[in-house]
Amino acid sequence: MSRTRTILGVAAASAAVLALAACSSGDSGSGSGEASGAADDYGLVSDGTLTVATEGTYRPFSFHEDGSGELVGYDVEIAEAVADKLGLEVEFQETQWDAIFAGLDAGRFDVIGNQVSITPEREEQYLFSEPYTVSRGVIVVNEGDSSISSFDDLDGKTTAQSLTSNWYELATESGAKVEAVEGWAQAVALLEQGRVDATINDELTFLDYLTTTPDAPIEVAAETDETSESAFAFTKDKEALVEAVDEALAELRDEGVLAEIGEKYFGADVSQ
Question: Got the DSSP string for 171-206?
């Protein structure tokens, strides 16, 4: 998949660290030590604060915790960790998906952190950080079913799919008969009842389901070669901020923080 990846060089990184240290006027993040005095270089909406757009209704990526009502999730924690590395505060602006890119274009926030998939069309209009989520499409079958081990094996089988999803197209291209459903919950119910042979969906959806239903008698039979990658999205004038975020993500990956957050929400490292 085509994607934009801007990585700060060693020399540039050293210079940036020195410059940020010189600008520091107080507290800095506990990670790389970069200081909030660099906010002017990033063109932030609010000095010293990384303003992140997210839905707040997209479990397990961005949602409100039952009971406390606190905004939590995989994307939320990744954004918080990045801001900490940059020595910045973080503020989340909860925005409906249909309006999220318009808000970014209007300068209401610095970045979108809401599982934005990197696509060639979006790359024409926006800058992207390094991916922090990598996923594949998977065929999910009942545990112990050895009749399906590849997409070719779906020929003549019945799968449960939403008719508006890309997975519906993949199922029909593979020769499967499709039982129409509204979403994952209905698909997995039909699968466990033995009314369909399989369902195709995103690997993250499957992993998330297992975290809440660990005894579910289902398993992955095959996965796509092609991956879907999600990253932070920025307007085209935010090159310096993208570089800084990429550096922060690289450090968080090396330190195992991205893997730890993935394990918390999916039971696996989904960052690479």
Answer: HHHTT-EEEE-SSHHHHHHHHHTTSSSBEEEEHHHH
